[in-house]
Amino acid sequence: MTPLTIPVFQILLSLLGDELHGYALIRDIRERTADEVRLTASTLYAAIKRMVDAGLIEELEHRPRQAKDDPRRRYYRITAAGRAVAREEARRLERLTAMAREKRLLPSLRPSSVQKGS
Amino acid sequence: MIPAVVRQPFAVSLYRLALRALPYRFRLEYAEQMQLVFADLHRDATRDGGWRRGLRQFLAELPGLARLIEREHREARHARAAARVHNPRENSDMLDSVILDLRFALRSLRKSPGFAVIAVLTLGLGFGANTAIFSIINGVLLKPLAFAESERLVALGEGTQADPPNTLDGTTPGSFFDWKAQATAFSGIAAFTTGRTSLTRACPQGGCEPESVVFSSSTGGLLNVLGVQPFFGRMPIATDEVPGQPEVVVLSHGLWRRLFGEDRAVLGRTLTLGGRARTVIGVMPPGFRFPDGTVELWTAMQMTPEFRTNRDQYYLQVVARLKPEVTMERARADMETVAARLRSEWAQYNTDLRINAVALRESVVGDVGPRLYILQGAVALVLLITCANLGNLLLARAAARRREIAVRQALGAGRGRVVRQLLTESIVLAVAGGAVGIVLGKGFLRLLLASQSAANLPRVEDIRLDPTVLAFTFAIAVAAGIAFGIAPALQLAGSRSSEALRQGSRGNTGGGGVRSVLVVSELALAVVLLAGAGLLLRSFALLQQVDSGVRTDRLVTFSVRLPTPNPTFVSTSLERIGALPGVRSVAVVSQLPVTGRGIGAWFNIIDRPTPANETPPGEAYRVVTPEFFATTGVPLRRGRLFTSADRLEAPAVIINEALARKYWPNDDPLGKLIYLGAPDNRLFQQGTIAGVVGDTRDGGLGAEPLPIVYIPLAVMPAWPEFSYVIRMAGDPGSDLGLGSIVASARREIRALDPTLPIRNVQTMNEVLRDSVAPQRFSMTLLSVFAGLALVMAALGVFGVLSFLVSQRTRELGIRIALGAAPGRVRAMVVGQGMRLALMGVGVGVVGALAATRLMSSQLFGVTSSDPVTYVAVSVLLIGIAGIATYLPARRATRVDPMVALRAE
Question: Are A23 and B40 an interchain contact pair (Cβ–Cβ within 8 Å)?
């Protein structure tokens, strides 16, 4: 399968945790990637449109109850399909890094860290 | 954190502007969100790093936006291309897309046949009524007369300065020949008169029955002025008008066929017309009618030189043809010059003479216009109500179709495209309704024309469903289709497709407001129609209560025209008929009561001579036999009735109260001496007023009684045409047995003169009924239309309330679950309906007050703002609306809360 683009994968990751609106997505991605991935409004919605069309995410019918911000904002949440696609992409990345380790490109994982990560 | 609306930073405005480059569909969905996000980011950037960071942020946005714009446009193009592949003909060109719309419309209507059938039938009814009435208007008022360049034909007639300018009273031979000699505006001018006479043709075997025919006798080349050619043969020429020349006659096509079986050898044959032999010289073409369809023969008048200068026999009607380039105004001015000359040259006859000129068509049509236009207005209102109802039906359908339309929009159908598609559907419905309407209209028209009252319409022969009428029906069908389709179409196309898709088919369409407006207008229109019909009904009822002045029951009448005056015949026939069993009394009269003013003459009072150079007033007169008053029940008020002692040697006359009031308001008319006619041409030398009798409504039940002078037949023995009036013995209030009396009377007349046709056999009640036939015609039709309107409006109220109740099922369910009493719920729904009804009545009453003003001329005894009518109409409409709200209200109380809540 074709790899996901960076914005799409990042948006899926952000939505795994919470239902977010556009600005919050950009903020969340910047924070998680330490300013490495900086989406603009245009790139964000170019991705959102494709993801909505593909059924990876969906617009919320009602805003979350606790939302106190601008009522015009629309919120998005990840769909089951989106979750599956994100997991598939993560596995692909995992396989890639495993290959890199085999070639000693990266240090192999110590068992303790495996336990830490589980 | 809801940001207060502050002045937007310049960058945000710029960004928003840039967003407009995106395709419409994308913009609709995301532009607002993008702008919000951009504004947030921009705010962050400027807060952290001033305008430089802000600028960097703005510039960073651009490459992504450019790529997005490029990509979205490419995708939109692909989507359209894909749609074309899916349906290769769409958008290829205008005609193809119209065909596509049509096909789609038919398919969509086939899917809901019940709706389609109801819509087409209701529309058909509305169009049918409009088609029928418009056929009449077209034939009577709009179509040009069937003569060459008929718009140049003018009717001329006399009036006084006080008369309305369309008065066309007859003129005298002397005046006519003056007009002919002096007028310059006309290329031809002719005079004619019509009458009835008996026609006998020389039958080879003999024994041909005489028949009564209507003929027209003319001078000045009438048929040439009209610009018609004979079917074959020739038309009368000037020499045919010279006394002593052989008398000639031209036949109508119908008469030629009836009498001679279309035998062309008819030319030169002889007909006996009113006792005089006339030679057939020509036959007119089939469509020729003048002055109306009853005339079957045209003859040339042969006036003696003395009679050509007669100035007191007002019996000629005049038609003229305008010279090319001469306007009606020029012609009027021209005739005014002639009139001025006549006023000074013949002052005695023409004191305040005016010569009026009216387009011939107007003179033929007369005052029937307002009556017909009121009916057309009424059917137009019915059609409007139909449209409002259909608009409502379509809105209900729209609720169910929202999802379908949303899908079409999501697949790339533009807003305009959707509106066009929906309008195509309603126009298809309307045109189908139009086709049904033409069929129904043809039926309606036949019914209308068959009803006897239509016989009072002029130009009945010209009324038919012709291409003009078809075009009219088609035009109103398309207009109606647009009218009732536009609201639902706009509403559907304007809704946000994403919402519709999300809501699915359960959607609340809104539209409640539009529907209420439609219902209120329906109700208002119905009020206008009902008020109009109500006013006519009241007028008609009042009209029928008017005392005609005659005791009409058990009174029967027929008319006879003698070929030559024959007083002996009259007295003998009266004796014989009077002796028949069952006959109480019998008389003759020159003109029946209630059938119009009839013939009149100058009225002169001996002790009040008319000043020289002034024309005496004209009054109507009747020639009667002494029994006339007893027979018809016209009561004696003062003095005495006629007896057999009233003879030519000692003339006595009787006047009615109207005449007495007019000339002797404070005085006793009895014993006064009068004469009728011109000083040198009197009907009789002079007579004493011997009695005053009650008035009869000869000008029509709705008009004031006319002044009338009654003259004994013995004083005017030369009178040739009579109506016999026979009063039967027996039970008053029943007209039983009149038929056998008439049969016996006919036998008696035949025994005296077998060649005499007997016409117009009628009871007096029928005569009276015929006199109000035009009013009955208008009233009946308007009542039918108002009834239709009422039913439609009730259906509208019912429909919209049912819709509102179904929309509120959930709410009502909750109310009931929370313990609302069914009575409260019912009252709430009924109240909603009543609010609509009251609004409709309110608007309608205002509209009706304005609209019915236009029909004041058709009213009798009531004003157009008659409170009784308005109250009755309002109560009726509110009552009907109440009934229409009942069913939905009952359904509302039967809502099962559980079902209602689960329904979502």
Answer: yes
